[in-house]
């Protein structure tokens, strides 16, 4: 085309499955999921690529999604449907005479026949009746490149909101409704000792919904977990790789790759929780949320070799 190159991709996916078993009605399902993507690369001096994709995605239920909160199998559970619309672009450029790339994306998803679920401790409990509709929308921006010559670093920012409406009771946050997130990965090395490398990984996410007790109404329990914060540090020294050669008599000649180092995960020992355990008070009959915390600070020693 005169104004640029146009690329497109059109496809369709089909699923057919049968649910049967002892004391279970035999039911068969067939679904089709069409999708399409168009990409445009204009004839501009700047290296920019635009993408637009859409489609109807249907996800057949797994066995656990056929079981309701009482353990009964419902063979008539339908595939969850999601209409997607995604717009994105990639911009490649030089900064400080080094390559960089800026990727941005915005999306919207309309979900129907949703098989809603709740989290009890770390166990997922499905309703198994396609009783909800939902939506998801958000955007993300990611910048990656050689902030330090010869390394790859990146920073990303994202926002997402997802809510569902169960049995026309109104919209509430879904268990994955995380909202804001930020991630940074920075890599560096000592100029006089380029084989001594370091990386710093920083993550911040706002808290997700904390779940609800078994058989409880999730509309009553809409509290959130605390924000997720984590910092990781890694330092390593490369003795041998594809860029370093040694004489046959040298002890490192036998290695195609050899590096040693250490990593400190969750460096500041933040107490990040993943879900809640619900405890009932016998006297008041109230349920209280007790956070389940993830691993605290961890020291990891690493040795990598390939002969």
Keywords:
307 residues; mainly beta; Maltoporin, Chain A; 13-stranded antiparallel sheet; 1 helix; 17 strands; globular
Describe the structure.
It is a single chain. The protein has 307 residues and is mainly β. It has one domain (4-306): TonB-dependent receptor, beta-barrel domain (Maltoporin, Chain A), CATH 2.40.170.20. Helix content is 1%, strand content 63%. The chain contains 1 helix and 17 strands. The protein has one helix spanning 63-66, and strands spanning 4-21, 24-42, 47-59, 80-95, 98-114, 117-120, 123-126, 132-145, 153-166, 171-173, 179-190, 193-205, 228-240, 257-265, 273-280, 287-293, 298-306. Strands 1, 2, 3, 4, 5, 8, 9, 10, 11, 12, 13, 14 and 17 form a 13-stranded antiparallel sheet that branches. It has a two-stranded antiparallel sheet with strand order 6-7. Strand 11 and strand 12 form a beta hairpin. The protein starts with a strand and ends with a strand.
Lay out the secondary structure.
Elements: E1 4-21, E2 24-42, E3 47-59, H1 63-66, E4 80-95, E5 98-114, E6 117-120, E7 123-126, E8 132-145, E9 153-166, E10 171-173, E11 179-190, E12 193-205, E13 228-240, E14 257-265, E15 273-280, E16 287-293, E17 298-306
Antiparallel strand pairs: 1-2, 2-3, 3-4, 4-5, 5-8, 6-7, 8-9, 9-10, 9-11, 11-12, 12-13, 13-14, 14-17, 15-16
């Amino acid at each position: 085309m005169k104004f640029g190159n146009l690329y497109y991709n059109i496809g369709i996916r089909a699923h057919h499955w049968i649910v049967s078993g002892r004391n279970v009605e035999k039911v068969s399902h067939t679904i089709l999921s069409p999708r399409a993507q168009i990409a445009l690369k204009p004839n501009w001096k700047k290296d920019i690529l635009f993408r637009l994709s859409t489609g109807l995605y249907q996800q057949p239920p797994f066995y656990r999604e056929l079981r309701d909160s009482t353990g009964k199998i419902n063979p008539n559970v339908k595939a969850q449907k999601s209409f997607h619309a995604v717009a994105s672009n990639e911009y490649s450029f030089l900064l400080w005479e080094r390559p960089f790339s800026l990727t941005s994306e915005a999306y919207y998803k309309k979900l129907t026949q949703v098989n809603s679920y709740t989290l009890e401790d770390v166990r997922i409990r499905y309703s198994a009746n396609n009783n909800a509709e939902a939506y998801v929308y958000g955007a993300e921006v990611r910048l990656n490149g050689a902030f330090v010559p010869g390394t790859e670093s990146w920073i990303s920012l994202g926002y997402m909101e997802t809510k569902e409406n169960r049995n026309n009771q109104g919209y509430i946050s879904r268990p994955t409704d995380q909202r804001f997130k930020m991630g940074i990965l920075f890599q560096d090395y000592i100029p006089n000792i380029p084989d001594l490398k370091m990386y710093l990984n920083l993550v911040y996410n706002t808290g997700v919904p904390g779940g609800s007790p078994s058989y409880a109404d999730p509309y009553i329990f809409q509290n959130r977990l605390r924000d997720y914060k984590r910092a990781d540090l890694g330092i390593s020294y490369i003795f041998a790789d594809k860029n370093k050669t040694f004489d046959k008599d040298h002890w490192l000649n036998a290695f195609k790759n050899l590096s040693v180092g250490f990593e400190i995960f969750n460096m500041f020992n933040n107490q990040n929780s993943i879900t809640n355990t619900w405890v009932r008070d016998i006297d008041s009959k109230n349920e209280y949320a007790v956070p389940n915390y993830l691993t605290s600070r961890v020291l990891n020693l690493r040795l990598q070799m390939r002969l």
